[in-house]
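Quick entry between incubations.
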Amino acid sequence: MSNYTPTHADTFLQLSLLLQHARHDWQHTPFSCTQLPWPELAKPLQALDEDELDTLDADDDAAFAWLSQYRPELLSSQQLTLPELARAPNYATPRWSSGIGGRKWAQIKDFAANIHAINHKFEGVTLTQPILEWCAGKGHLGRLLAQQGAPKVTSLEWAPDLCTQGEALANQLQLPHEFVCANALSPQAAALFKPQQIAVALHACGELHLRFLEHAAAAGTQQLAVSPCCYHLIADEHYQPLSQAGQQHDLQLDRHSLRLPLQQQITGGERVRRLRHIELTWRLAFDELQQTLTADSSYLPLPSFPKRLLSGDFSDFVLWACEKKSLTPPHIIDSEHWLALAASRRLLVKRIEFVRHRYRYLLELWLLLDKALFLEEQGYQVQLGLFTDLQHTPRRYLLQATLP
Ligand SMILES: C[S@@+](CC[C@H](N)C(=O)[O-])C[C@H]1O[C@@H](n2cnc3c(N)ncnc32)[C@H](O)[C@@H]1O
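Done. Structure below.
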């Protein structure tokens, strides 16, 4: 048996070819489709009723096996798994951690455990360098690292109230932890990166984690740890790959495709499932109504909205949506009629989403590997893996990079 371990570059190439080839599976915008885009999948997909489809969609392994019957090329991607990284020895909550939710606390503890793990490995000692915490919120991670012996922590955050609260918590504990209240996209923030430093970013959104990587590499920051999230929140219309390999195999990901990895949810229980069902139905029912109102059969997306809107009547939702889209609502809203139209379209959307969902992980892995390869090109040794358990967050990928 061969001991060959694929490099990040090998995996990226394999993944790029697979995703390029399967583009027709993951790139569709289901709300704009009027029929299933894959005639060869129509019969087996239509054989699943809504409950069966929901159940299968929620079981990633079973769903992947189902689709692989019709897409055997997907099977080769099953070995593209990432290693489990270090975990905190426990999630016991000290008094100062009150106010941090249980799952957030576990994420922070596990993230910090990996900073310690990598420093033991490379230096035999732990946390001798100052920390820069990027897009810190109240600086919970920075505060934990300061508690765990970091000589100095600087947390960058742009929301003044979060900075004030974070500063107060650090002062109470008399920690060497300060805040810089500034926009991460400003030159002031770029200037915070230094060579002798550990720069960390827990759940930094699209543009913010891209800037983090670029600034750190430009400054020659010794060590980085970043767990990306919200890949679609970028300045450009399309994702601009950072690595040379990414530029060669550019998938031209638009924001719609960049949202796909975020569609992985931790099952939120019956109430959350019910609300998701109502939201999808109401969005589609409103779309049917607006197409009639405007005599235009294109899909009109609505922005996100507070979930409390879903506990009212559909007719109130229509009034809200019409206002958002500057449309004059009809005098009489025949809710039953529009909701019935939505029901059949909902099944179509779910069937298309079901196929797209099977590419969530592969697209996220492609985005992560592009960043890993960029850092390798800049001379870093890079480790990519899972820093916490799925029950704590689906955004659990950690890129750690060290200059040798
Ligand atoms: C998803 S939260 C993560 C917070 C923290 N790292 C955590 O995991 O709890 C992202 C944080 O980035 C901050 N943020 C968003 N845009 C920013 C910007 N342009 N400059 C600085 N901070 C920003 C937000 O206010 C928020 O606190």
